[in-house]
Amino acid sequence: MAINNSINQYLIKHGFEAFHPKAVLFDMDGVLYDSMPHHVIAWQRSMAQFGIHMTEEDAYATEGARGIDTIRQMVRRQKGKDITLDEAQRMYDVKSRLFHEMGETAIFDGVIDLMRKIRQHGMTVGVVTGSGQKPLINRLLTDFSEFLDESHIVTAYDVRKGKPAPDPYLMGLRKCGNLHPWQGIVVENAPLGIRAGVAAQCLTVAVNSGPLPDDVLRQAGADVLFHKMADLAIAFEDIINV
Ligand code: MG
């Protein structure tokens, strides 16, 4: 069946002999939470205060990168100057504040079922996010307290090189028990995050929860693609039992 083929192709691509998943590493925004529409608005409104024009496409295309990296890149492109990390952080703080003023976003259907299945199979739940928004990270520990341990979360503060570099997912593998790439499954919704998962050589599952065409996520290297977290939850045993 299709998932079997995808996993065989994954093994061939990386020269691995076997796939023995022990952890699932989830991206946060657009994977666990239906939060991207709010992030897009917060990005646009906050950057406008600094004279930076950000389109919806910019917000989706840069999703997953560390916020301060996105800001420095936009400033360089639009103002032709380099700003310090501190300056970028102050701009990011404005974005974070606007995001939180918009209220809490929903957990996607299927996420809790999927996490329950992961734990039932004796596997670890991890979260690997480019976010540096502390209230969001605290919310993870409340919402998923049954399934997720704080020591299994990677945030913008844990790595110097964010997605699309493999570093965040390599850190996730380390935090979830010094795992090999063929022992991890990455779940991502954004092109940069998918590239990071593939660069870390993990089986990378795309869940296309946003407006980008599927092809953009396939071209980023996704091994398997779903449209909803609930569909991934249903197919989960097919993925881990091959
Ligand atoms: Mg995401």
Outline the structure in words.
With 242 residues, the chain is an alpha/beta fold. The chain is built from eleven helices and six strands. It has helices spanning 2-14, 36-49, 56-61, 67-79, 85-101, 111-120, 134-143, 167-175, 191-199, 214-219, 229-240; strands spanning 23-26, 124-128, 148-154, 184-188, 203-207, 224-226. Strands 3-2-1-4-5-6 form a six-stranded parallel sheet, sandwiched between helices. Strand 4, helix 9 (191-199) and strand 5 form a beta-alpha-beta unit. Helix 2 packs across helix 5, helix 4 (67-79) crosses helix 5 and helix 6 packs parallel to helix 11 (229-240). The radius of gyration is 17 Å and the shape is globular. The mean pLDDT is 95. Residues 27, 29-31, 63-64, 189-190, 193 line the site of magnesium ion (MG).
Label this structure with key terms.
single chain, 242 residues, alpha/beta, six-stranded parallel beta sheet, binds magnesium ion
The 3D shape can be described as: globular
Instruction: Please report which band the strand proportion falls in: under 5%, 5-15%, 15-25%, 25-35%, 35-45% or over 45%.
Output: 5-15%
Distinct ligands = magnesium ion
Order of secondary-structure elements: HEHHHHHEHEHEHEHEH
Structural class: alpha/beta
Reported for the largest beta sheet, the result is: 6 strands, parallel
Report the span from N to C terminus. Answer: 10 Å
